[in-house]
Amino acid sequence: MRRQPASLIKMDVVSEVSKAAEIARVKAEEAVDVILDELKACMARGGRMEIRGFGVFIVKPRKGGIGRNPKTGQVVPIPPGRTVRFKPGQALENIGHEVSQNTSTATRLGSV
């Protein structure tokens, strides 16, 4: 049976902040909300948010193009826009490499 990667939701983060900072869950939720709201506001302005040791969120332009409706085959213009990208920091990048190496080793050994 293959094990799925762990998921994390906002309330998990709130719970961890509450425990680590030894504050009430309501205050921890407010703190998490402020961080997420600031990230959203920064992205809406087209800015860049860097969290040292974690990574950088950046808004990049996206080219327009021509698409096709799969049902009708009709050509549909796709307007240019903006998209949010995330570039992981070095520490996070290293974690990703460790996970992929462990996964490929486990797959070769047939234990997954």
Number of strands: 5
Helix coverage percent: 40-55%
Q: For the record, give the distance between the C-alpha atoms at the N and C termini, rounded to a whole number.
A: 7 Å
Structural class: alpha+beta
Mean pLDDT: 87
**Tally of helical runs:** 3
Apparent shape: extended
Weakly predicted, low-confidence segments? none
SSE blueprint and pairings:
Elements: H1 10-21, H2 25-44, E1 48-51, E2 55-62, E3 65-68, E4 75-78, E5 81-88, H3 90-109
Helix pairs in contact: 1-2
Describe this entry's structure for a reader.
- The chain has a domain at 8-45.
- The protein is an alpha+beta fold and 112 residues long.
- It has helices at 10-21, 25-44, 90-109, and strands spanning 48-51, 55-62, 65-68, 75-78, 81-88.
- Helix 1 (10-21) crosses helix 2 (25-44).
